[in-house]
Design goal:
Layout (H helix, E strand, L loop, with lengths): L6 H14 L20 H5 L9 E3 L6 E7 L4 H8 L1 H10 L4 E7 L4 H11 L3 H13 L1 H4 L5 H14 L4 H8 L2 H18 L6 E4 L2 E4 L3 H12 L2
Parallel strand pairs: 2-3
Antiparallel strand pairs: 1-3, 2-4, 4-5
């Protein structure tokens, strides 16, 4: 998946979520139209993103740091997490050689909603819920309109052990949604990310590639 990411897009996503807050608890009601709100970089930069928790696996002092930028609505990201990621975790993350940081990219409001569900129960459940979201991507992302999609995401949250009240609190937290989008914007501008998945390996951008090639790259960083 590839998109140009702009401050305007980010704020439109926030506007869509804010506009949709009331109907998330009313699945039978049609969503209101999302206002097309624009802002400038100064306004976006004024949002404090320090409260956003980085989702990390592996040893803090690992010799190789990998940042993955991914969208929950990106099929290539789902394919990576269904296959190469599991091998990466086994070979390098669980062995203390790689510190893995997962950062969400919001190309659409559905990806933002999925991120909200993934983060709802905190870091302890984040990667497990992320696995469920990617595994079920072909079902929830094609469930129909916004009401149907958000209900399928709720089901994933409940499957992960999040109760309904907590799910609704997370989905309707407009301030958190705005903070997440500002955080996403900061990250993609810093690393010039415009496609997913994108990887930053020890500060260098790496495109999605077969795991055998990715493994060789990591081993080179390790000096093997």
């Amino acid at each position: 998946m590839s998109r140009n990411s702009t401050v305007t897009l980010a704020v439109v996503v926030v506007a869509a979520v804010a506009a949709g807050a009331y109907w998330m608890t009313r699945p039978s009601s049609p969503p209101p139209a999302a206002p097309q709100i624009e802002t400038d970089e100064t306004q976006a930069a004024s949002i404090d993103t320090s409260s956003v928790v980085e989702m990390v696996q592996g040893a803090e002092d690992a010799p190789v740091e990998i940042i993955e930028y991914a969208s929950y609505t990106c099929p290539h990201c789902a394919a990576f997490h269904e296959g190469p990621y599991k091998q990466l975790k086994k070979d390098f993350i669980d062995t203390g050689k790689v510190k893995f940081i997962y950062r969400e990219v919001y190309f659409d409001r559905y990806g933002l909603w999925a991120s909200t569900i993934a983060r709802c129960a905190g870091p302890e459940k984040f990667f497990g819920i992320t696995e469920l979201i990617f595994k079920g991507q072909s079902e929830w992302a094609r469930a129909g309109g916004p009401n149907e999609i958000v209900e399928e995401l709720r089901k994933i949250g409940r499957l992960a052990g999040i109760d309904n009240d907590q799910l609704e609190a997370c989905l309707q937290d407009g301030e958190n949604a705005q903070t997440l989008v500002a955080w996403y914007q900061e990250n993609v501008e810093k690393h010039e990310v415009n496609a997913t998945p994108t990887f930053i390996v020890n500060g260098k951008m790496v495109e999605n590639q077969p795991y055998a090639d990715f493994k060789k790259l990591i081993e080179a960083e390790l000096g093997n």
